[in-house]
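Sample entry (239 residues):
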Amino acid sequence: MPNGPPRAVVLLSGGLDSATTLAIALRDGFACYALSFAYGQRQRVELAAAERVARALGVIEHRTAVIDLRTFGGSALTADIAVPKDRSESDMGHGIPITYVPARNTIFLSYALAWAEVLGAYDLFIGVNAVDYSGYPDCRPEYIAAFETLAGLATAAGAEQRGRFRLHAPLLHLGKADIIREGVALGVDYTLTHSCYDPVAELACGHCDACLLRRRGFDTARIPDPTHYASSSHEGKHP
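Predicted structure, serialized as tokens:
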């Protein structure tokens, strides 16, 4: 084990949830290494947001892995497929939307696990949420438990029993409003983050599932929404 605080690899997309997760990991005393992905997503505003968040919160190192999930497509985030807009809460609560990227969290966590082995880290953090989310199968508690088991079986460190890998999902059972309250209490500057699936230049569209969930979270938390929306009808803060 390395000397000093325990090391952790934190998946950092640049969105609200991952920024809050990073802040929680830092609060809990981990030396954090942030990992982002240029995975062929149609919009790359989130990568700039991830850089801002990593810099502001103060990670040990921030890396961006380059992969290309456009090879497979199958998602509105990686292929020429329209992003659903203005869906109701009921619609968002049923089925798996076309913004789901096939096996994305499994791919990302596998990269994080590989880096953790190199670092001598046994803790991984991911900002998935099973309350206010759009039906993604890799955001469920049973998925988190299964990957943690896999991590112990699929690594040299696990096979040699040098340590037990733990997959932390501190937001798993929190609603979006509670996530925002937690982040604000930890000093997260949400103006640095970006959640939109279909931005207009650098502005959030205000109509995709991610924008609607984010806006509802701020409204429920009774905290002013600092997001810059392209649509005036969804404006949280005018540019």
